[in-house]
Records
---
Amino acid sequence: MSIIDHSSEIKLAVIGLGYVGLPLAAEFAKHRTVVGFDIDAGRVAALEAGRDVTLEVSEQELREASGLRYTSNLSDLVECNFYIVTVPTPIDEHKRPDLSPLLRASRLIGKVLEKGDIVVFESTVYPGATEEDCVPELEAVSGLKLNVDFYVGYSPERINPGDKAHRVSTIKKVTAGSTPEVAEIVDRLYREIIVAGTHKASSIRVAEAAKVIENTQRDLNIALINELAIIFNKMGIETEAVLEAAGTKWNFLPFRPGLVGGHCIGVDPYYLTYKAEAIGYHPQIILAGRRLNDGMGAYAVSQLVKAMVKRRIQVEGARVLVMGLTFKENCPDLRNTRVVDILRELREYNVLADVYDPWVNAEDAQREYGVTPVDELQAGVYDAIILAVAHDRFRTIGAEKIRALGKSAHVLYDLKYILKAEEADVRL
């Protein structure tokens, strides 16, 4: 049985057209024909109409991706022989890996998998998941055997939602394959679109591990800065001023305190710790960082409440405006946003909280978190205002207009260093 040995023989399909899959499929479609598959027929219909609700790919870019065909029909995958899987890998309510989207995608591909085909996974997983969890699903459904009838690869996604500077093609790509020959085929395919170059890992497990520690490292660095912020706040020292001073040294890392959510930093470490515990090791530093970061929403509200009490503002029954709901600035992505921790904690104090976020789809916010953002801002009605997400639009509004939303006595809490130090009453 022969493996695909020439680029022209590859008939590519991208499975999952979300924040990762669509930009990847669109980039490939500038050079070759691509079948873009998603189980959400509504998502497919919107893309066919030239609309990307994630705002990761512009209408112009969609038009330029002339080789991309969208579908939610399994039969349209029969013609393909190279599959790239880009489905979400979230955690459940117990912070354990939820591989169900990945396993469903594997079973789906198994129905159309044929001899000689290659399946590459981009979803973030713990080391070993591709070969230990996904491959058995492919084999069971297809009746084929890995490295005899079909092959797999792994190339972890490095998409940064909302980032218009670091795009698919300009971020170096790690690649790997289940055999040396397949590793080269996978690497060669990605080199078609990745101008930043590729790094061919020695094994799939190495590539999986590399991905999961990228965000674990960032999580721990932010946890350190969050802990320092708590310490400096107790000492009456301005955290940002400390970080600016320390940042004058060439090798000081420029991390800032804040909420840690999203589909990467707030999730990926749990994949690594789950696997570590499965092999008999209990991680200490990683989980300590996670606990600290997961507690920052409650800490922020405690700061706010103390500031309100000092100003003799009645906390119970107070009205608070939370500006921002997405997990990061300048994008509509709500996945694993930790702003909901602030909202939950405010409810514990019987505070009435309004949420304003011009980036958010109200239906998505209601469906995901039971939150209905306000459409318009009212002046002079809030006892406190929290700047929770650093959207550029909030910077444009400015401190004076933001303060105008509050009552004569109110607290302005700048959680994201959007304003100058003297313009806010409280900063993290």
---
Amino acid sequence: MQTNLASWASGTDLGNEADAILRRCVHCGFCTATCPTYQVLGDELDSPRGRIYLIKQVLEGKEPTQSTQQHLDRCLTCRNCETTCPSGVEYGHLVDIGRKIVDERVERSWGDRTRRTLLRKAMLSPMFAPAMRLGQSLRGLLPQALRRKVPERRDAGPLPQVGQHARQVLMLAGCVQPAMMPTIDAATIRVLDAVGIGARIAPGAGCCGAVSFHLDAQDEAVAQMRANVDAWWPLVQDGKVEAIVMNASGCGAMVKEYAHHLRHDAAYAQKAADIVALVKDVAEIVAPHVGLLRARLPAGMRAAFHPPCTLQHWQGLRPLSEQLLADLGFELQPFADKHLCCGSAGAYSVLNPDIALELRDRKLGAIAAASPDVILSANIGCIGHLQSGTDTPVRHWVEVVDEQLRRAAQG
């Protein structure tokens, strides 16, 4: 694709990056076949190719409008288009640039600004946990729209003493997962303990930055990235941990991009690159020990695995995860359109509920045809979103493995 950037963009870091990405696009349109929003809305401007044109026009000097902003907002950032693209267009990075530039030039309505700010502040607030507990205690009284965002609370169970293990890893504290689904972190610690690995959370680490980054606060997100690097760096530098383990693929995908987001920061660029080299999804840590676990697990649970977009398109870990689950004894059931987004996409399901719910129902309809006993996934957002539309249990796979291990120990 030929480009002619405006003077304000030409020669800048963002302009140079965007220009390199734009020039790889050959207009082939393969991306439209796998874009969830294009499949739902049928509008070329709500496809990757259409959004690329919009971003190109802005970078070449055309003034963006609220319509431009809306088309970029509607993107789920699932990166399915990157998996499909034969030219290697880094669409995810391009849409990040496009959103930042458009948001600087197009003022959102008061209502939209307020909603996004409140959503960001609420999810990152220390009051989120007590508010979630209150919501869970009153869940049956909540309106349906709110109830689907409040999962039923389950006991996290006791945690083992992990300090005796020679192998140690760090876990991300996160922002909403400890309050909404504390069983995921607890299960991760117990499963890793079962294979001889101690997992702990570094003081000072918090949200990965994804919430702020995708809610018009990219500078705030970068500050959160630096804070996590600072919290992890002393342990990483001293060689006390061998990995930073992620059990939410959305967080894992974001942390694996720290080196990209901090590449122009002289104080953090190398540290971020060293951190990224240690980031592993929990499936990557567990997979080499499948033989040790398999002997203690039953076979034959009929399951459907929904691979989150951040796992399969951002990180390319769908094959490894599915093989791990099969090796652990799950009977994985195939279903149609496994590559498509479920519609959760972080805060997307709150900001664009109609699209999100249609994608959720499409996904659940495809899964229902497989008649699984349980739906497994690897990201809290997908789990909560899918569970809101089905009576079939939707769980993080590590929770189910943990429950089976505990039953085996008791039996």
